[in-house]
Structures are given as C-alpha cells and as structure tokens.
Amino acid sequence: MSNRATIILAIGMLLLGLALGAVGGGVMGFFAGRDSARAANPILQGLRQPIQPGQQPGVPPGGVPQNLFTAARITQIEKDSQAEKAGLKQGDVITAIGDTKLDATRTLA
Question: By the number of CB atoms within 10 A of the CB, which of 50, 84, 101, 102 ranks highest?
Fold first, then answer.
C-alpha cells in the first residue's frame, strides 16, 4: 500500500470515528435526558400550580415567617467549652448576642 493510500485510509478512519462518536453521543444523551425529564416532571408540576389572588410565586400560603433567619440553633457543644460553662445545650436557639440581634448577614463560629 502506498504512502498516499495509507494517509487517505487514516483520514477516512478518523472521520468515520468522529461521525460514529457524534451519533453515539447523541443517542446516549437522548436516553440519559429521558430519565432526567422523568425525575423533573413532579417538580415542574408543582411549579405549574395556579397562583391565587394576593399570593406571590414561591411563597407559602401563610407567608414567610418573620423569624426565618433571625436565630441560630446550637447543634453541638464542645466539652469544657465556654458555651458549656455558660449553660448552653444542644438544641438551644440563639436570637441575639448581647444587645445585637441575629440576622441573615451574620455568621456565628
């Protein structure tokens, strides 16, 4: 086989591989996307609920609680820590530190 024929054969094989890869990837993407669509359907159905007069989208009928981001719940107390010595316990809720009330912009550490 001549050098030119080898080059043409190699280019042909490369193009065939690219074409088959594109088709195979498209087919795989189609079938993978079908499962994702099935999983998303219940979520989308919930978003398609009609909005009642006086109601904002995404807000529960009772509205957003005013204290949604104004407290921190203690999840863990370290042994012999200042928090333990102060009498704080797991599950306690902190709404202020001193005279400073908590809000969504403060991080506790």
Answer: 102
